[in-house]
Design brief:
single chain, about 475 residues, alpha/beta, Rossmann fold, 2 domains, two-stranded antiparallel sheet, 16 helices, elongated, signal
Length: about 475
């Protein structure tokens, strides 16, 4: 009988699941910054004609997109997020830019007269925090992207031979050759494969030790890099107990790049596991045939020789006829199974029994829910960035207030103007904190809603499968 787990991997590839990532989005370009109102532009032109200028910087943002688009100050553009979020920032203009600030703001103070908004715009354009683009941009674009659960529907399976559902060691060989950079159903093959492997590891890792090898990830597909690419097989997750965070990090770190040393990958796994006498199954996820001159059929046969508990299962993802022929031969030589991820129906011809999930399979569905570590991690990332952005907004306010104090001290403004600028600084901070609070709540709700959707999908599957098992008396 074809084992459940090769079916699960195939189901994931068929579904074209996308993996989640936590990479920060590209920063909003300066061109996206909001323009000043037309009246301000007119005033600026008039003042420019008089030999002075007032910064057209936006006084405060009103939406998340506007907040992400606010440009940094001319003197603070290289300030770090960590520095901006520090709770030790005081009410002052940093000494390192104090002199430059006074030189920059003096003409604006003279030109602004009693117009506090114009002068505040100059201060914001000089001392505004650079943190909004990265932090708020990430929050605004974030959408939860948990791996879809693997929920294979009942299907016919061969009954010629049985194997344990969980081998003692499950060793995944992930093809990272350059062909995995091609798109399938609007997504890179590599991203679909990664999502399938992450989900697979989560399930099989509950009972089996897990290892992950990457091959084809070194060099490029150019002839000059062939030796490097063909000779690099890496155990990115050495055989051992499954740890979700470490395993997923290892999967996400694999990048498609070069040639396809399938034979070398099987041989490397055999050599590394030579001292293990228990059951081992290699799960090869590949979209093509050997391209490094090796003989993967011979290596698969060597892997299982004198070891009846060893198997080589192949999941062929969107492969052509020539590659499929070789991959099937590898599975046959390795006492394993081949499944084509692009045409599952073709692989079920001549089958006589229906597969239904076992009670154990159903009990393990809990591990497919993102509720727990995955959702907690997502919520933590949201809160972390929102908190950093809020602290940056507060640091910005105190820097603006320090600027007003400094200008008063130097005789550039009077107390009334200082108070007006401070009121403007406080209003800007409050507006930005309100946006950030709303954005944080929106994204936290999105995470919780996605968890509820996936959990409902799992529960529906569990209910249907239990009903079918009851009907069949299994």
């Amino acid at each position: 009988m074809k084992p459940l787990f090769i079916t699960l991997l195939t189901a994931a590839l068929l579904a074209g699941c996308s993996g989640g990532t936590t990479d920060l989005p590209e920063q909003v370009p300066d061109e996206a910054a909001l323009s000043a109102p037309a009246s301000d532009k007119a005033d600026n032109k008039k003042e420019a004609d008089q030999g002075a200028s007032v910064s057209p910087a936006v006084l405060q943002a009103e939406t998340a997109d506007e907040l992400a688009a606010l440009p940094p100050g001319e003197l603070t553009a290289d300030f770090t997020i960590e520095g901006e979020a520090s709770t030790w920032n005081g009410r002052e203009v940093p000494e390192t830019i104090r002199s430059a600030f006074l030189d920059s703001v003096k003409p604006a103070a003279e030109a602004a007269g009693e117009d506090s908004d114009a002068l505040f715009g100059a201060i914001a354009g000089t001392l505004g925090t650079p943190s909004y683009s990265e932090l708020v941009g990430w929050l605004a674009e974030y959408e939860p992207d948990f791996d879809e659960p693997l929920l294979p529907e009942p299907h016919e399976v061969e009954s010629e031979k049985t194997r344990p559902a969980f081998p003692e060691k499950a060793v995944i060989l992930l093809d990272a050759s350059s062909s995995m950079l091609l798109e399938a159903d609007g997504q890179l093959k590599m991203e679909t494969a990664k999502s399938a492997v992450r989900s697979f590891g989560r399930i099989i890792g509950q009972k089996s030790d897990v290892a992950l090898y990457a091959y084809g990830h070194a060099g490029t597909q150019n002839e000059a890099d062939k030796a490097l690419s063909c000779g690099t097989i890496e155990d990115v997750y050495p055989s051992g107990k499954y740890d979700a965070e470490t395993f997923n990090t290892a999967v996400d770190g694999v990048q498609a790049a070069g040639w396809t040393p399938l034979a070398g990958a099987i041989r490397q796994a055999r050599e590394d596991l030579a001292q293990h006498e228990g059951d081992i199954t290699l799960y090869v996820v590949s979209d093509g045939a050997e391209t490094c001159g090796g003989d993967p059929v011979k290596e698969a046969a060597a892997f299982v020789q004198d070891h009846p508990g060893r198997h080589v299962d192949i999941i062929g993802f969107q492969v052509d006829a020539e590659a499929e022929s070789q991959l099937k031969a590898v599975a046959d030589a390795g006492n394993g199974n081949y499944l084509g991820a692009d045409s599952l129906e073709e692989m079920t011809g001549g089958m006589t029994e229906y597969w239904l999930p076992s009670d154990l399979d159903l009990s393990l569905l809990v591990y497919q829910s993102p509720d727990g570590w995955e959702s907690s991690t997502a919520l933590h990332h949201i809160s972390e960035r929102a908190t950093l952005a809020k602290r940056a907004a507060t640091s910005e306010k105190y820097r603006f207030m320090g600027a007003a104090d400094l200008m008063l001290e130097k005789g550039l403004i009077d107390e009334a103007m200082r108070d007006a600028l401070n009121d403007r600084s406080t209003a800007r901070e409050k507006a930005h904190l309100r946006i950030l609070d709303g954005l944080e709540e929106e994204k936290r709700n999105a995470v919780n809603s996605e968890v509820e959707r996936i959990d409902a999908k799992i529960e529906d599957y569990r209910t249907r499968m239990e009903a079918l098992k009851k009907e069949q008396g299994s």
